[in-house]
Write a structure and sequence with these properties.
Elements: E1 4-9, E2 14-21, E3 24-25, E4 29-32, H1 44-66, E5 75-81, H2 85-102, E6 106-110, H3 111-117, E7 130-135, E8 140-147, E9 150-156, H4 162-173, H5 179-187, H6 210-226, H7 230-261, E10 265-269, H8 276-289, E11 292-294, H9 305-317
Parallel strand pairs: 1-5, 5-6, 7-10, 10-11
Antiparallel strand pairs: 1-2, 2-3, 2-4, 7-8, 8-9
Helix pairs in contact: 1-2, 3-9, 4-5, 4-6, 4-7, 5-7, 6-7, 7-8
Length: 337
C-alpha cells in the first residue's frame, strides 16, 4: 500500500498544504498572514478571509512541488480542530469539496495529534511509549504517546496556555507582536536570575499560568511607577527572567512524569517548542537524566500541514475515514484514534 494524501491545515493564521506518499512527506507549503501584526494578535475574521484567498494557491503549489496530479491522490486530510472556527471552516469546506469531486476518502485530524506526530516526519524518531510536552498559544499538555494513534493527556493547563503567558508578558512590556519570539530573542543577552515571579503550584502533572501572569503584571506596574524607564533599561533581564520561570514550570512537571512513569523518551512540540531557551533547557535536562530527547525542526514547530499529513497516513492505514457531514470544532479533545 502506497497511499498518496493531500493534507490541509487552517486552524489559525497559517494556510498550509502538504503531500505525503507512503509515509514520506514530500513538501510543506505554508502561507503566513502578516495582516495581524498591527492589531497585536490574530483577528479571526481577517484570518478566515486570508485562508480563502490563499488556499487554492497553496494547494496547487503543494501538488506541483510533489510532481503529482490531483487524480493520483488516494485521500484528502484536513484539520478538524481545535482552532479558530472560521479558519477551520475554510480548510474543512475545501477538503470536503475536493474529496467529493475526486471521489476519494476524507480524513479528519486533531491539530494537537498532528503536533505530536511531527516527530515522525524526519529522523531521529522516538520509540513508544514516549512523553510529549505540547506547548502553544492555546494549549499546554503532557501527552503519554502509546502508539501513532493512541495518546493520553496526563497533564494540562487549568487556565492559560504557556504561549499565551509569553505573549501577555510581551504585551505588558510593550513589545511588538508576536511577543513570544521577541521575549526569546531579548532573553539571550539577559540575566535570567535578575527577577523572580511567583507562580501557582498545581497537583500532579497539571499547569496554571494565570498566577505568574498576574504577578508579572503587578511587578512591571510597580517598577515602572518608580522608574518610567525601567522596562527599556532592563528589558533583556526582564525577558530572561520571565522566560526562565515559565520554562521551569513546564520542565518540572515533565521531569515528574518521566520519573513516575519510568519513561526516558521525551519530546516537545507546538509553537512554543521553537523557543531556544526551552530547547536548550530540555537538552540539558535530558543529558542529566539520560533521556532521549526529541525536538522538531523549526518548520514543524508552528502550524503546518506536514504534521497533519503524518497523522492522515496512519489513519489511512487503519481505514479511519470521515464522512461528508463532518464539521469543524473550535474545541476538540485529544482522543485515541
Amino acid at each position: 500500500m502506497d497511499p498518496k494524501i493531500l493534507a490541509i491545515e487552517s486552524s489559525c493564521d497559517e494556510t498550509s498544504a502538504s503531500v505525503i506518499s507512503n509515509g514520506k512527506v514530500l513538501n510543506n507549503v505554508i502561507a503566513s498572514q502578516s495582516v495581524h501584526h498591527k492589531y497585536g494578535g490574530v483577528v479571526p475574521e481577517l484570518a478566515s478571509r486570508a485562508h480563502q484567498k490563499n488556499i487554492v494557491h497553496i494547494v496547487n503549489e503543494a501538488m506541483v512541488s510533489a510532481g503529482m496530479e490531483l487524480q493520483e491522490l488516494d485521500a484528502i486530510a484536513f484539520t478538524k480542530g481545535p482552532g479558530l472556527l472560521g479558519s477551520l471552516l475554510v480548510g474543512v469546506s475545501f477538503a470536503k469539496s475536493l474529496s467529493l469531486a475526486l471521489n476519494i476518502p476524507l480524513i479528519e485530524v486533531n491539530h494537537m495529534q498532528g503536533h505530536v506526530l511531527s516527530h515522525f516526519i524526519e529522523d531521529p524518531k522516538p520509540s513508544f511509549p514516549f512523553l510529549c510536552l505540547t506547548v502553544s498559544g492555546g494549549h499546554t499538555q503532557i501527552i503519554l504517546v502509546k502508539d501513532y494513534l493512541k495518546m493520553e493527556v496526563i497533564g494540562e493547563t487549568k487556565d492559560d496556555a504557556v504561549g499565551e503567558a509569553f505573549d501577555k508578558a510581551a504585551k505588558i512590556m510593550g513589545l511588538a507582536y508576536p511577543g513570544g519570539p521577541m521575549i526569546d530573542k531579548l532573553a539571550k543577552t539577559g540575566n535570567a536570575d535578575a527577577f523572580t515571579f511567583p507562580g501557582t503550584s498545581m497537583p500532579s502533572y497539571d499547569f496554571s499560568f494565570s498566577g505568574i501572569k498576574t504577578a508579572f503584571m503587578y511587578f512591571i506596574r510597580k517598577e515602572v511607577s518608580n522608574n518610567p524607564a525601567f522596562i527599556e533599561s532592563r528589558k533583556h533581564d526582564i525577558c530572561a527572567s520571565i522566560q526562565k520561570h515559565l520554562i521551569q514550570m513546564l520542565l518540572e512537571k515533565l521531569e515528574m512524569a518521566s520519573k513516575d512513569l519510568g519513561i526516558k523518551e521525551v519530546a516537545i512540540a507546538g509553537g512554543v517548542s521553537a523557543n531556544s531557551g526551552l530547547r536548550e533547557a530540555l537538552k540539558n535536562l535530558g543529558e542529566r537524566h539520560g533521556w532521549r530527547t526529541f525536538i522538531p525542526e523549526f518548520q514543524y514547530c508552528t502550524d503546518n500541514a506536514a504534521m497533519v499529513a503524518m497523522v492522515a497516513h496512519h489513519k489511512y492505514l487503519n481505514s479511519i475515514f470521515a464522512d461528508l457531514n463532518v464539521s469543524p470544532l473550535a474545541r476538540m479533545p485529544l482522543m485515541n484514534r
